[in-house]
Amino acid sequence: MKIFPFALLVLFSFSPPKGLTSTEVVKKMYNRYHGKWHTSLAFNQTTGRYRNDSLIRTETWHERIIYPDLLRIDFGDETLGNGAIYKGDSLFVFRNHKVLQATKGENELIFFLGGIYFKPYEQVISHFADLHIDLAKFHETTWKGKAVYVLGADADGDKLTQLWIDKDMLVPVRYFKYDKDLKEEVTFEDQQKLNNGWSETNCKFYINDKLLQTESYHNLVTNPVIDKSVFDAKLIGK
Q: How far, in Å, CA of 167 to CA of 227, rounded?
């Protein structure tokens, strides 16, 4: 069969459409929610703690968030003074109104679940690298019957730290973190529309595929006025 010059031109000029990359998905998320996401959030949650996949206890936690990086959790009765504060890259644990532990310990979930929309875009991209998510890696898959983007891994089953993003809502639904022999998995489910943003209302936490904790959110309030002093560990007990 003879190939005419026009056919050669068509053959050599055609290239398949370029797929998305992890960085482009982050940009899509940022463009959709930057300047629109709620600035603060408060809710109560029923927390279930598990051992060997069996429930051992439940308790109520009270949570307050100011984006991009402030989270306070009060465990049980708030008057007893038991809880934790995440502030930037620091973690403070308090008991009986006294700080017992102060360590470096960023809660990256605050970043993934809203904090990214309150930082300059360049800082968002660099922070993914800080959290060991390689945005040069990317693929698409499905989870629970829905299409998702996977940031940080080229294929299902890759043992790499990665974030799964719902393709329609552009919000995280699953997170894997690998560190030597430790595998952590968190799922973010039952998304609830909150003004121009969303919030997961059910979460599950696994360590090496064993269920460790479940969380069910209640009484969500967007943009509550929160005094930032509640995130000051120096004021605990005062």
A: 35
For Cα atoms 79, 57, 49, give the angle at the middle one, nearest 5 degrees.
100
Q: Which pTM was predicted?
A: 0.91
Residues 115-172 have pLDDT tens digits of 999 999 999 999 999 999 999 999 999 999 999 999 999 999 999 999 999 999 999 9
Backbone angles phi, psi at 117, to 5 degrees: -85, 0
Question: Which amino acid makes up residue 211?
Answer: L
Q: Please return the burial class of 124, using the count of CB atoms within 10 Å of its CB with bins 0-12, 13-18 and 19+.
A: buried
